[in-house]
Amino acid sequence: VLKNYQKIVESVKFSGPTQMAQIIRKTIESSSRDLPFKYNLLLLVTDGVVIDETETVKALIEASFYPISVVIVGVGDSDFTTMRRLDSDESILMSEDGSTAVRDIVQFVEFSAYE
Q1: How far is CA 23 from CA 38, 44, 53, 90, in A?
Q2: Residues of the chain with pLDDT > 70: what percent?
Q3: ∠6-7-12 over CA atoms, to 5°?
Q4: HSE-up of 112 (CA within 13 Å, CB side)?
Q5: What does each C-alpha distance from 62 to 9, 34, 75 come to in angstroms?
Q6: How many CA atoms within 13 Å lie on the side-chain side of 77?
Q7: Please, what is the angle between helix 53-63 and helix 21-34, to 10°?
Q8: Which residues have C-beta within 8 Å of that of residue 59, sequence separation ≥ 6?
Q9: Strand, coil or helix: what is 15?
Q10: How confident is residue 23, by pLDDT bands cut at 50, 70 and 90?
Q11: Going edge to edge, which strands form the sheet with 68-74?
């Protein structure tokens, strides 16, 4: 996987801004149609800071009620502070209105840590 990534990444042009809420909600829609038969894994590869953080948090909290896990892979040298917060390893993910996830569904991995 790493060799293939390194080979093709030179020909890929990443562009921003990074928005995640919409694709998370699409995954929820798909998951709700497949209940209770499938578990969904959403893989997000990003090179930037998420700009719709409030909406992303709300979408992740909603997704925590479904058979969904989200893996976020950060590539490049951007500031991934927000991604680490979405990972919520320290505490359960909470929105501005106080809603909380029912389980931790996000794993953030910084690609450069494994090169």
Answers
A1: 18, 9, 13, 25
A2: 94
A3: 85
A4: 9
A5: 32, 16, 26
A6: 0
A7: 10
A8: 20, 21, 24, 25, 28
A9: coil
A10: very high
A11: 40-46, 68-74, 106-110
Residues near 108 by beta carbon (within 8 Å), at least 6 away in sequence: 71, 72, 73, 74, 80, 83, 84, 86, 87
Token representation of residue 5: 């990534």
- Per residue in 60-107, pLDDT (tens digit) is 999 999 999 999 999 888 888 889 999 988 899 999 999 999 999 999
Q: Which of 37, 111, 27 is nearest to 69 (CA)?
A: 27
Q: Structure pTM? A: 0.85
Is pLDDT of 48 > 80? no
